[in-house]
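Feature request, filed as a ticket because there's no other form

It would be nice if the structure record came with a short human-readable summary line next to the tokens. Right now we just get the raw output. Example of a typical job, pasted below so the devs can see what we mean:
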Amino acid sequence: METLSVSHEIHCSADRFWTTFFDPDFNEQMFVQELGFRDYCVLEQKESENGIECRSTGVIESHLATPLRTLTGQEMRYVQQGCFDRSSRCYRWQSVPARMADRLRLEGSMRIEPIGTDCVRRIVEFNVEARIFGIGGLLESKVVKELSAECEVSAAAMNRYFEASH
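Raw output as currently delivered:
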């Protein structure tokens, strides 16, 4: 299993961060326009006094090497199930790929720490597991590299969004 922990400064308040994070229109723009997904959709989002549960689906072209793409397909399709806990202010999710769901596992968490009145540190942690003899470790490291790059792009895009909407 490969793990990844990344952090970025996002220039907004904690409340504005979470409100924006759960905005379906913002997410569609983020995933399609900024991250290059072919398709992204929030399937369901339910709020309660304890938190927010959401389910989304996405399709992105695979950037994996050809031998790995033969396993995962030209496109990576997934369904993500996530839950935001209001008391811990942490969002946890699990993504289930359309192909090889019994051998691939991707889960993670995200939390923020205030570092000023209009600035937070976003901390994202991923766990990637590929139970495939001989190439599981290679697939894990490639997926972690892709996720790290996506975090960089999303942090920059969020900061541009917040700067433009001041």
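Something like this underneath would help us a lot:
Residues 37 and 60 are 4 Å apart (CA to CA).
Residues 136-164 form the longest helix (29 residues).
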